[in-house]
């Protein structure tokens, strides 16, 4: 049985080809989805899961790395269609996912709008509308930094803030796999900080890359870019040097 399955989901957005890589984790009892795409991505997930010979009904849990719209957009729809799914999130992220606090990405977009050149404002207005359209979803369980979930040989919660304050990555020591979320991305075969222009705290983001270096990682999976092919430790060190030089 494969314990770690990559759900590469290709789609068109703004006339550009994009791919996101949620992850499916399985053991004898649990099927766990990590992150769940943009709003209206329910059909994409059904197709991606079926490619692995499974059905969405098999999913028992969803772990959310943070509340950006491309990570929680389909969460409410998945939970509504499959109420048996337990939604798990970092404790700091819960009120944003539930809609009790305004999305930090929306706060950022609204606060920078007035300073944009006029030609950029139509795109920003569309982005703000899109952020406001994300449907809140329930959170059934919160987790803390350093906590280990008892599935798939253990899943350690690694707090990797920067991109957002409550961002987490997941480490599976049994397979030395790090699911990075947006702590790092792969661009043209190299690791980078995810969207530096939108990262809420770059110093924290670099510290989070340093935190990843504390783990013995054989397999690094990024939400944007998929699985990294190369020497993970050397690539992480090079990324830290790039942003601290």
Secondary structure layout plus pairing:
Elements: E1 4-6, E2 9-13, E3 16-20, E4 23-26, E5 31-34, H1 42-50, E6 61-64, H2 69-72, H3 75-81, E7 86-90, H4 94-97, H5 104-112, H6 121-132, E8 141-143, E9 148-149, E10 155-159, E11 168-172, E12 177-181, E13 185-187, E14 190-192, H7 202-212, E15 219-222, E16 226-227, H8 232-244
Parallel strand pairs: 5-6, 6-7, 7-8, 12-15
Antiparallel strand pairs: 1-4, 2-3, 4-5, 9-10, 10-11, 11-12, 13-14, 15-16
Helix pairs in contact: 5-6, 7-8
In short:
Keywords: Hydrolase. The protein is an alpha/beta fold and 245 residues long.
Give an overview in words.
InterPro entries: Metallo-B-lactamas, NDM-1-like, RibonucZ/Hydroxyglut_hydro. One of its GO terms (molecular function) is hydrolase activity. Pfam families: Lactamase_B (PF00753). By secondary structure, this protein is of the alpha/beta class. It has one domain: Ribonuclease Z/Hydroxyacylglutathione hydrolase-like (Metallo-beta-lactamase, Chain A, 4-Layer Sandwich), CATH 3.60.15. The chain is 28% helix and 25% strand. The chain is built from eight helices and 16 strands. The strands form four sheets. It has a six-stranded mixed beta sheet with strand order 1-4-5-6-7-8, with no helix packed on it. Helix 7 runs antiparallel to helix 8. The N and C termini lie far apart (44 Å). The relative contact order is 0.14. The model has no long low-confidence stretch (mean pLDDT 95).
